[in-house]
Each structure stands twice: as structure tokens, then as C-alpha cells.
Amino acid sequence: MVYPYVWIAVFVILVLIEVFTAELTTIWFAGGALIAFVLSLFSGISIWIQLTVFIVVSVVLLLCTRPALIRLMEKRKLKTNVETIPGKTAIVAEKIDNLNSTGSVEINGLSWTARSENNDEIISVGSTVEVLRVEGVKVIVKLKEDK
Questions:
Q1: Which has the least CB within 10 A, 25, 37, 77, 134?
Q2: Residue-level pLDDT at 1
Q3: How far is it between the farthest Cα atoms of the chain?
Q4: For 23-66, how does the pLDDT look when each residue is reduced to its tens digit (9 = 90+)?
Q5: Distance between CA 7 and CA 116 in Å, rounded?
Q6: pLDDT tens readout for residues 71-113
Q7: Residue 45 CB partners (closer than 8 Å, separation 6+)
Q8: Helix (H, G, I), strand (E, B), or coil: what is residue 127?
Q9: 92 CB contacts (<8 Å, ≥6 apart)?
């Protein structure tokens, strides 16, 4: 009875791969290997049935549980500080002039290099702007409309 040892080895290898990659792909096949291991403990169950069960269980686990688990993990992902900046209001600390590569804004007490979304637009010091996005280490802004 060599098959139980083979299935346990496959299970351990797949779990180790999952631990080191955390891609949520091999863990489902590890589940299939575990079920195939249990089947291999019973005499009279052929390797072909074990392989079939391994494949079916692995695919079912992958297709039925992976999408739900990925959605759950996405909900728990914390945004970084940079991801919270788009949409914020900022005050221009240095005149924003894309052609002369000047400009900075204050966002939450921090100074950011800033560029206007329009290359021909110059935004004066003290103006209120809206942050559209972050590109590298600078923010792209537009003059905030007065309401």
C-alpha cells in the first residue's frame, strides 16, 4: 500500500506551495489529495478511482469556494494612505505650473508635489483643488469648483 504515502506527500507539497505563494490555488488541490488519501486507506479502491476523486474534489472546491473566499479577502484589505488621497481637497502651497514643473499642495498636513490635469492651466497659491489621482510621488489635481 504505497498510495496513502503518495497522497500524503502530494498533500504536504501542495500545502507548502500554498503557504509560500498564498495565491489560493494549490490549497484546493490539497483538499482533493486529502480525500484521495482517505480513499487509499480502504483496500479495493483502485488508483483510477482515487485519481478521479482527487480531480473532481479539487475542481469542485476551486470553483465553488475560491470566488467567495477572494471576495471575503478583498473586503478585509486595508487601503494604504496613497489609496485614500484621490477625491480629497487640498490647498495649493506653491503655484502649480506644469510647463515650469512647479507646484505643491498640502493634504492632511503633508506636502505633495502637484501637477494640474490641464498642462496649460496655472493654479495660484491658496487655491482649493481636488486630487484626481496619484502618479508616482505627485498628485494630479484640478481647480475645485465653488458651490
A1: 77
A2: 65
A3: 83
A4: 777 888 999 999 999 999 987 889 999 999 999 999 999 888 87
A5: 60
A6: 877 776 656 677 778 989 999 999 999 999 999 999 988 899 9
A7: 39
A8: coil
A9: 103, 104, 105, 114, 123, 124, 125, 126, 127, 128, 129
- Cell (9 digits) for 59: 475542481
Query: 55 in helix, strand or coil?
Result: helix
54, 32 in Cβ contact below 8 A?
A: yes
> Could you tell me the pLDDT band of residue 70, with boundaries at 50, 70 and 90?
confident
* Residue 39: burial class (beta carbons within 10 Å; 0-12, 13-18, 19+): buried
Residue, of 71 and 120, whose pLDDT is higher: 120
DSSP 11-49: HHHHHHHHHHH--SSHHHHHHHHHHHHHHHTSTT--HHH
Residues whose CB is less than 8 angstroms from the CB of residue 76 and which lie 6 or more positions away in sequence, other chains included: none
* pTM score of the predicted model: 0.50
Q: Which residue has the cell 498510495?
A: 3
Cα separation values, 91 from 44, 80, 88, 123, 138, Å: 76, 22, 10, 10, 14
**In the beta sheet, which residues pair with residue 107?**
110
Considering only CA atoms, which of 9, 33, 8, 28 is closest in space to residue 18? 28
